[in-house]
Design a protein that fits this description.
Layout: H1 3-94
Length: about 100
């Protein structure tokens, strides 16, 4: 192998090594950027999940309150129906 050929092979090797390093560096930068974006997306999703969890808790509290009002209404209706029934029975006994 001549000096000229050796120099050419060495230069080609250096060029290819530099190109490989540049490619690996660009690929790594791209992967790091993608990782940062996914981490940001996860943080936003975690916040949305937390917000929804709070809303669900608030809705469950409201649902419980409405359920208690419904039970109160049912008891009141039962008492009123009983009072009407008692009044009807009393009127029949008078006649």
């Amino acid at each position: 192998m001549t000096l000229r050929t050796s120099t050419f092979v060495f230069s080609l090797f250096v060029f290819l090594a530099g190109a490989a390093w540049a490619y690996n560096s660009a690929a790594r930068d791209s992967l790091l950027k993608s990782r940062d974006q996914v981490a940001d997306q996860r943080a936003k999703l975690e916040q949305a999940y937390s917000d929804l969890d709070r809303k669900i808790d608030d809705l469950q509290k409201q649902q419980f309150t409405v359920q208690q009002y419904l039970k109160d209404c049912d008891r009141t209706l039962k008492d009123l129906d009983q009072a009407l029934s008692n009044q009807d029975a009393a009127l029949r006994n008078i006649r």
